[in-house]
Amino acid sequence: MARVTGVPISFLLSRGQSIKVLSQLLRKAKQKNLVIPSVKKGDLETTHLKVLEAKTGFYEKPITTLDFTSLYPSIMMAYNLCYCNLIIMSEALLLVVSLKVTPEDVRKFNLPPKCVNKTPSSETFVKSNLQKGILPKFLKNSWSLS
Predict the structure, then answer these.
(1) Where are the domains of the chain?
(2) What is the helix (H) or strand (E) element at residue 42, kind and residue range?
(3) pTM of this prediction?
(4) CA Rg value for the chain
(5) Cβ(18)–Cβ(24) under 8 Å?
(6) 65, 102, 66: which is closest to 87 by C-alpha?
(7) pLDDT by residue (tens digit) across 24-80?
């Protein structure tokens, strides 16, 4: 497991899943000469996440449980969401972190819908017909192994 994930054996026992996944993503990114940005602890606190706690107890009528375990990976694979496909645009900055799409391409084509996916929060990602992201590939390979 340590060899596959690229982490020391001690991490397998003392750390969570995130370090194992991030280690593998960093390895894949390095092979493609890409850099994954780091997130500061304070940046995570500004996100508006809603976590619902389960209400434990006995229920006489059947209840439904929803399996969200595969929801996020499915969305990431379907819409090619990846660090390397993110297009960041502002008045002062046009940054395309991508292998095949250059800033000139984006300006030239003015972000045609056939080339990008826009999220509900307005992030823009290159579609897989231009470039398949590292994260979607990684997730697909991980699922095929399980």
Answers:
(1) 1-31, 60-146
(2) helix 41-45
(3) 0.58
(4) 19
(5) no
(6) 102
(7) 888 888 888 877 766 666 555 555 556 667 778 898 888 776 665 667 888 889 998
